[in-house]
Amino acid sequence: MYNKQLLNSLQSYSEELQDILDPRSEVHQKLVQKGMILFRQQLVYGVKFSNGKVEAKVRDVSPVHVELFFEHMGNNTCTCPEEGMCRHQTALFFTVLSRSQSIFLWMQEWKEHWKINDLLSSLQRGSDLLTKMPPSSETGPEQWLERIKNAYHHVSATNFFQLDEWARTCYRRLIGFAPVEREWKPLYQLFAACESVKVINSIATEKKKRAHLSSFVQQMLEEADEALASLATTASPFAFDEYLHYLRENSKSFLEDETVFPTEYTDIYMKLWASLFKHSSDRRKEWSRLQEIVGDIHDDRINIAFIHLSILLEEDELALKKIDQLGADTAPYALRWMKLLQAERTKSRLTAFLPVFINHITTFISSLPRNYEQAQFTRALFQVLDSGTAIKLEPALLEKAYIKLLPHSRFQYNEYLLTKQDYRKWAELQAYTENSLEYIDRHTIDMVAKQDPGALQPLYHDTITVLINNRTRDSYKRAVRYLKRLQKLYKKEKKMPQWELYLTELLGRTKRLRAFQEECRKGKLIHDES
């Protein structure tokens, strides 16, 4: 007999398992059936209890080692290759449970819990089970939605810091029960990601909870991206229609429901309509619905969605008008729209949108309070605004954007000025960013020296001053090397009188620095009077 604490833990685990396993699912039925076979054939052995867990070995095609954690089912492990709940875990559960209660009663409770007919009253061969199963045991999105809600129904985290791990554990367990058919897995993943965000939103009502769950919500956006990418590469079977209809009709909830994740909700809506719902008639219908309410409701999500659909439907005039009305608030979404327009073969529409996007994005970046946020968004901008796209902008507007985003845009602006062969501005940029000649590659220096030697003179002066001020023998030697290169530049420009004045003033200013004067003599910049 088990002690009271172990019985309570086992009961809690049993109830959670009944919530997760759905008898209407063919996958779950097979899972329970295979676990029951292993249990009844007494293939579970070496059962040990310790610290809130039970472990054992299961003799299958090859022996495996299983661990069940009563308080945290997501931590369960099995050495078999299956992800999530497997037949070996269910076999060990039945073995442990059988010592305190009837497995038959557990089955009855499980089926009663889900209020369905007895589909597993006795063990049957898999082929028999498939033959007798109703063909629609897993059809319709309602079963998926119920399973997703049940996966998160009990918040087991004891404090805010455990919320993220709890949510990730629930999601991993949820994905472990995805349909076995390959073509259905990405659709299930998309459903799970979208609905998980809604469930988490209902939990994250407090500011602290939102902060600790925001990372999980970002993971769900990545999961949705991955699922949509998979769905885009394969033709959708007719069986998908009911599920797609649900997603399409309920996509508006990401615009209209109250949420503590407004940006993420808007992002999901945009992903669905850009990647999944591509029929013009569907988009036109949704666009018309938004057009009726966009003037009456001053909601950023509605406005952004209207712009998004307008761009997808090539209603560019209305999109540009609404973007100008919202101003810099459109910046976080403008990068996505730039990518959409870049994907077009002609890219002619991109030319009209780019000036508007760039103006609002640069204003938005400048308004960000933290330096790292400015740098992060600037990097994201220039990942989209590649050289091929940048060339479509008017040079004055592009340069204005580079200047406005300094110092974060210094690398892109540097390449732009070198390509443009504007070496004077290039030199000014180096001085502004305190980029010494010591850190500029020799090839670039030689190229500028050949094309416009005068542009380098201020950089040489600054670099020499910095090196002398370091007051070390090594820095004096490097300063002399730069002085000799500078001398050649003055000579090339036929400005030797100016060079003599500069050198005389420098030597007079540093006459007490004997080591520097000595290096100048070695470099033959000073000739002994003797």
What does this structure look like?
The protein has 27 helices and four strands. It has 530 residues and is mainly alpha-helical. A four-stranded antiparallel β-sheet has the order 1-2-3-4, covered by helices on one side. A hairpin with a 7-residue loop joins strand 3 and strand 4 (77-78). The protein is elongated and about 105 Å long.
Count of strand segments: 4
Query: Going across the major beta sheet, what is the strand order?
Result: 1-2-3-4
Distance between the termini: 109 Å
Shape: elongated
Low-confidence stretches: 116-138
> Percentage of helical residues?
55-70%
Radius of gyration: 34 Å
Profile the largest sheet.
4 strands, antiparallel
Q: Give the count of helical stretches.
A: 27
Q: Tell me what portion of residues adopts beta-strand conformation.
A: under 5%
Rounded mean pLDDT is: 86
Helix-and-strand structural type = mainly alpha
